[in-house]
Amino acid sequence: MCKLEKFNYALFGNPIDHSESPKIHNFFSVQTGILHTYKAINIPLDQFSSVVSDFFKKNVKGANVTAPFKKEAYFFSNKLTERAKIAQSVNTLKKINNKCILGDNTDGVGLLSDLVRLKFIKKNFSILILGAGGAVKGVLLPLLSLGCSIYILNRTVLNANNLVKQFYKYGKIYVFEEKVFKKQNFDLVINAMSRNTKKKNFAPLSLISSKTFFYDMNYSTENTPFIDWCSKIGADSISNGIGMLVFQAAYSFLEWHDVFPETNYVIDALSIN
Ligand SMILES: NC(=O)c1ccc[n+]([C@@H]2O[C@H](COP(=O)([O-])OP(=O)(O)OC[C@H]3O[C@@H](n4cnc5c(N)ncnc54)[C@H](OP(=O)(O)O)[C@@H]3O)[C@@H](O)[C@H]2O)c1
Fold first, then answer.
1. CATH, residue 254
2. DSSP readout, 3-72?
3. Is 217 annotated to bind ligand?
4. How large is the average pLDDT for residues 71-75?
5. Which InterPro entries does this UniProt record tie to the protein (predicted)?
6. pLDDT tens for residues 90-118?
């Protein structure tokens, strides 16, 4: 017997058409018997606050937020979880006491869960992160909490500097500077640049070994430019971000329904589509 939820859920972003989140939440809904409705809504860039306020006036209990609105969702929230407060970035909203909006960030726990599933992470790893956008803000705290040393390489150095200023009190985090960096093999390279960013070299080859793991936060049924590059340089351990997407959705589902859905078969189903 399915439990019929009377509340609606949504994902807000711009653009939104590539999103697999409605499909994932549909899997969770069928699996758990919690029949919530979940749709992707594209919002004009200057209308986040007004559209989401109107949405929450209706029969709504929660929402996800994706690029470029995670910072706005942080300011929109009346209360924040500790991890969202530290990240200053929100991807999950939940109505509490029928009036207040709680902001959470499940990107970090989502990425970490997938890295653990893949056996791509250990305590004290040395990690190179490519990019310094909203997604990186969400994932730094759990990686730093594992004692990892994190180096940020970003097109706009100022944005990497700002991230280091925001997070240095939580662990070992540095701006990656090729000229001054001593030769060291990274254990893990994470790509967090925008989906279709093409580059000849994503990272200096001198910093990579045959044991390095490569993770692309982006996901697509076809190879992303980063995954193509990893294959070209002969990397053995490569993954795209579909697992992170499923896990961050599962943690949002847990926030809304107090139920953690089964994730592995959803990852498998999305990986072969
Ligand atoms: N799998 C998942 O669950 C998951 C979760 C979150 C995000 N993501 C994916 O992760 C990616 C990043 O998301 P985000 O929210 O952090 O986006 P964002 O805030 O827009 O940040 C984009 C990042 O990409 C860099 N960039 C953009 N175009 C570039 C170019 N041509 N050359 C070099 N660098 C470039 C930006 O550098 P500047 O600072 O120089 O602008 C910035 O660091 C997105 O594609 C998103 O779909 C996946």
1. 3.40.50.10860
2. B----EEEEEESS-TT--HHHHHHHHHHHHTB--EEEEEE--TT-HHHHHHHHHHSSEEEEEE-TT-HHH
3. yes
4. 97
5. Aminoacid_DH-like_N_sf, NAD(P)-bd_dom_sf, Shikimate_DH, Shikimate_DH-bd_N, Shikimate_DH_fam, Shikm_DH/Glu-tRNA_Rdtase
6. 999 999 988 899 999 999 999 999 999 99
For residue 181, the domain's CATH number is 3.40.50.720
Active-site annotation holds for 6: no
Residues 177 and 136 in one domain: yes
2 domain residue, yes or no: no
- Please tell me if the CB atom of residue 80 comes closer than 6 angstroms to any atom of ligand 1: no
Domain span holding position 185: 108-240
DSSP state of 119: T
Q: State if residue 248 touches ligand 1 by the CB under 6 angstroms criterion.
A: yes
Q: Is the pTM of this model over 0.85?
A: yes
Same-domain check for residues 113 and 14:
no
Q: Is residue 3 part of a domain?
A: no
Distance of CA 128 from the midpoint of ligand 1 (Å) = 15
Q: What percentage of the chain reaches a pLDDT higher than 70?
A: 97
Name the nearest CA neighbour of 199 among 130, 120, 129, 146.
Answer: 130
pLDDT band at 36 (very low <50, low <70, confident <90, very high): confident
CA-wise closest residue to 269 among 26, 16, 18, 32:
26
pLDDT one-digit tens code per residue, 152-176: 999 999 999 999 999 999 999 999 9
Whether residues 59 and 131 share a domain: the answer is no
> For the chain, how many structural domains are there in total?
2
Within this chain, do residues 227 and 162 fall inside the same structural domain, yes or no?
yes
Say if CB 192 and CB 130 are below 8 A apart: yes
Residue 27: inside a domain, yes or no?
Answer: yes
